[in-house]
Write a structure and sequence with these properties.
six-stranded antiparallel beta sheet; alpha+beta; 5 helices; single chain; 27% helix; 2 domains; two-stranded antiparallel ribbon
Length: 203
């Protein structure tokens, strides 16, 4: 079924799918219905409409003193805003940001840096994401991702949306031992991020 639909990989464990929003239903778009239109064009148009035409709100709050910015609204297209994540994060971003997609109605972000350790930031967003995913309907993922601004973000925004490319999102996570004194990275990218942060904060 996936091969028949207009869908693409956003990140490990995440797919983007173009849908047709009818008054009483949402239907995935079939590749057979594209006609002569490219997938890049269709994705660009769908993302632009989701980002610019659908309502959304942005809130900032602290969880365990970690500043989280949430993009949200009561519809299923909020996740499209990851394609313009630079709008919502605080710069400069020497380590990028953390982002999660617990439910269709929420994207949660944290700009890495400031007064929080990277360990606390990852652990806090893990906890918040897991609780949202467990409490809501039709959860997407409890995974936290590391967003690293790169070639995609250097493109003009509209060009990026229609480029067929996606932001660089890598799964990250940490686990503390029973004493809470030792922490282990759960992925290679987690280790990479932690080492980069420690390199600048030890000495």
């Amino acid at each position: 079924m996936r091969a028949a639909l207009v869908t693409r990989r956003l990140a490990p464990g995440l797919l983007q799918t173009v849908v047709v929003d009818h008054p009483d239903s949402i239907m995935p778009l079939n590749r057979a219905d594209l006609g002569g239109t490219s997938e890049e064009e269709v994705f660009g148009a769908a993302l632009t409409r989701s980002i610019e035409d659908e309502p959304h709100h942005v809130t900032a709050e602290a969880a365990d003193e970690v500043r989280l910015v949430t993009i949200g609204e009561r519809h299923r297209y909020v996740g499209a805003h990851v394609q313009v994540l630079a709008r919502y994060v605080d710069g400069p971003l020497p380590y990028g940001a953390l982002v999660s997609f617990p439910l269709p109605e929420y994207v949660v972000t944290h700009s890495i840096g400031g007064g929080n350790s990277v360990f606390t930031a990852i652990a806090t967003l893990q906890d918040v994401t897991a609780k949202l995913a467990a409490a809501g309907e039709k959860p997407i993922s409890s995974q936290v991702y590391w967003w690293r601004p790169g070639a995609y973000e250097r493109m003009p925004e509209k060009e990026a949306l229609y480029s067929g490319r996606v932001p660089d999102l890598a799964p990250v996570g940490v686990v503390f031992d029973d004493t809470g004194q030792s922490v282990s990275p759960l992925t290679a990218e987690s280790d990479e991020l932690i080492r980069a942060w420690l390199n600048d904060h030890q000495g």
